[in-house]
Design brief:
The protein is of the alpha/beta class. It contains 11 helices and 9 strands. It is globular, with a radius of gyration of 19 Å.
Length: 338
């Protein structure tokens, strides 16, 4: 088994088309709100789509901030399909979905079964969701989900950020996901970065993360829905670990994100950048960036990963989380309970 393990080109890519957002969530790792001064122009984004379309990218995601606030979002999507990118997704807080937007989504889903919506829902009540996302935003998000349901549009995933105050609400959010016909529920831990630094005491502990992973496996069977809470460290729950099947984090393995100002991000949860598309060739950097080379080499892992029998599968867990907490992506995932 190679100690380095990655695709020859990034297969999953996100373009964070703006930092502008209508919300000011407490946990926003981008501290989104106002657009950045040096955001990519439409022309630069079209050129980026051109470049991406020359590679075997499995999915191109448009995110933000809130991508629905970008005046050219639908032009970017149309162009990406025209250029032959088969699978496209949008990550949205869902509060801005109206009849017109829902009809547009319906058209995309009608033309391609590869148009995916990633919707944020951090709780099943206004009290829980709005604690992070601000008053009135639970109602607005549900309004968006209702419109999707009205037009028979299935979200690909409901994304829930887990912290100490909403762990008991996972099952209720899973019920919402069923109600709105979502294919998946994605459970993500609160990441201490951006605005979330001010609420760091609510980040879950390794033992709560383990408990969350166990709960999700149970709920997945009970509700017959896939719940993705299977970060790399979840291999610790598997009775029979297949050491020939690495389960790496996407960082350095298959994902690249492009920030609103063009920074090339191995993982969007951190501000760690390997270059900028305004000056650098992103596919050349994918192969030659010293940071990516360092991340891919598991012999560079430190702390308790050294000598860990699961290292070849888990590969250090969430490298972005290690970077945000320890300022060192080669230290173990802070939520590893081993
Ligand atoms: S978490 Fe999402 S919806 Fe909330 S402020 Fe950040 S970008 Fe906007
Ligand atoms: S010690 Fe490191 S390699 Fe082992 S399970 Fe934890 S994060 Fe993964
Ligand atoms: S660094 Fe963490 S959040 Fe980023 S891709 Fe890897 S597991 Fe996911």
């Amino acid at each position: 088994m190679a100690t380095k393990y990655y695709f020859s080109t990034p297969t999953l890519m996100s373009i964070f088309i703006t930092n502008r957002c209508n919300l000011r969530c407490k946990h926003c790792v981008f501290a989104a709100g106002e657009p950045l001064k040096e955001e990519l122009s439409d022309e630069q984004i079209f050129n980026l789509i051109d470049k991406i379309s020359t590679r075997e990218v499995i999915c191109l995601d448009f995110s933000g901030g809130e991508p629905l606030l970008h005046k050219s979002l639908f032009k970017f999507i149309d162009y990406a399909y025209e250029k032959g990118i088969k699978s496209i997704s949008i990550a949205t807080n869902s509060t801005l979905i109206n009849e017109e937007i829902a009809k547009r989504f319906k058209k995309y889903q009608g033309n391609s079964d590869k148009f995916n919506l990633r919707i944020s829902l951090d709780g099943s009540t206004a009290e829980i969701h709005d604690w992070l996302r601000g008053e009135g935003n639970f109602k607005a998000a549900i309004n968006g989900l209702e419109l999707l349901k009205k037009y028979n549009i299935r979200p690909r995933e409901i994304n829930m950020v887990i912290h100490k105050k909403n762990i008991d609400d996972i099952e209720n959010v899973v019920r919402f996901a069923k109600e709105y016909n979502s294919y998946y529920v994605v459970i993500l831990p609160l990441i201490i970065s951006g605005r979330a630094i001010a609420i760091k005491e609510f980040m879950i502990t390794p033992s709560l993360w383990k408990q969350t992973s166990i709960i999700c496996r149970r709920l997945s069977k009970q509700y017959n829905i896939e719940i993705l809470c299977d970060g790399p460290t979840s291999c610790l729950l598997d009775a029979d670990i297949n050491l020939n099947k690495p389960k790496p984090c996407m960082c350095g393995y298959q994902f690249l994100g492009i920030s609103p100002s063009g920074e090339i991000l191995p993982c969007p949860i951190t501000d760690l950048s390997i270059g900028n598309i305004k000056n650098d060739d992103l596919f050349n950097l994918w192969l030659n960036s010293p940071i990516l080379k360092d991340i891919r080499e598991i012999e560079n892992l430190g702390g308790k990963c050294v000598g860990c029998e699961y290292k070849i599968v888990c590969r250090g867990g969430c490298r972005g989380l290690a970077h945000t907490v320890f300022n060192n992506y080669n230290l173990p995932d802070p939520l590893c309970w081993k």
